[in-house]
Structure formats: C-alpha cells, structure tokens
Amino acid sequence: MTMRELRADDWPAVRAIYEEGIRSGNATFETEAPSWEEWDAAHPALRLVAERDGQVAGWAALSPMSRRSCYRGVGEVSIYIAERARSEGVGRTLLERLVADSEELGYWTLSAGIFPENEASLRLHRACGFRDLGVYRGLGEVGGVWRDVAILERRSEVVGT
C-alpha cells in the first residue's frame, strides 16, 4: 500500500468510494456526492489517498471546523475506505498518517462525527487516539429518519499544548 496526497485526477475513484459510503446508509447525511469543485473547496488543506495495486483503496481529508482564526488548528476528519479494502488496515494507515500530517500543519484538535451504528469507524478512531465526547441526539434527518451522531475528538500532544 502506498500513501500520497490526493490529486484532482483521483476524483473519480474518490467519488466512487464516497458513493459506496452514501449507499451504506451509515457514513454521511449526504445523499449524493458533490462535484469536484465543491469537494475541493470544502477540503482545502490535507487530503490523502491510499493505493493498493495501482487503485485508490481509500481516502482521508480534513475540513476546517470554522472560518474563525481562533479555530485555525481544528479540523473535521472524513475517511472512506473502498468496500473491497475494508478490514485490511487501510483505514488505520490513512488515519494515522492524517493525524501525523495534521500535526505538522499545526492542527491541535481533530473532530469526527460518526453515526453510532458505524461501529467499525468508531473502533478505528478510538484506536487512533480519539475519545468520545458525547452524542448529538437526532442531529439531522435523511430519508425521513432522524439520526444521532457520536462526536469524537483527538487532541494533539505536540501542538497547542
């Protein structure tokens, strides 16, 4: 497996993996993937892909938690793994690299909002140093169903201490 920065020409593969997550019903409130332009604008700083056998097997990215300068070091994590590559260490490798790279860029807090039913994602984040903060009850609605969202965070031990 190789890790590298996500490029614009990765978008078709990244979008396909994102759409797998949408179809799962437990990855996002979104019902369709955005355009490249929308996604690119929402994830300006840190975007990674994991490749196996020349194919994108997963991706991870940060989006700013807020535009306010006091929160410049707080990012929200997105991570999606291709169905064909799940339970093979791709997620752990991506998230560990995202954490390390985020600290090099000056991030002191990473946040993740995860549907409680997505037990694999919760385990992954906890294994990478995220802690549970709580659960937003009925935070959003999709398909006529109000969904809870577990909130996790990871505080850097080297930035913002």
Descriptive overview:
The chain has 161 residues and is of the alpha+beta class. It has one domain (2-155): Gcn5-related N-acetyltransferase (GNAT) (Aminopeptidase), CATH 3.40.630.30. 28% of the residues lie in helices and 35% in strands. The protein has helices spanning 11-24, 36-42, 90-104, 119-127, and strands at residues 2-5, 47-52, 55-64, 74-81, 109-114, 131-142, 145-155. It has a seven-stranded mixed sheet. β6 and β7 form a beta hairpin. The chain is globular and about 40 Å long. The mean pLDDT is 95.
The main sheet comes to: 7 strands, mixed
Overall pLDDT metric: 95
The span between the termini is 33 Å
Strand content: 35-45%
> From the 3D coordinates, which CATH architecture would you assign?
3-Layer(aba) Sandwich
Q: How are the SSEs ordered, and which strands pair?
A:
Elements: E1 2-5, H1 11-24, H2 36-42, E2 47-52, E3 55-64, E4 74-81, H3 90-104, E5 109-114, H4 119-127, E6 131-142, E7 145-155
Offer a quick outline of the entry.
The mean pLDDT is 95.
Keyphrases for this structure?
4 helices, 7 strands, single chain, 161 residues
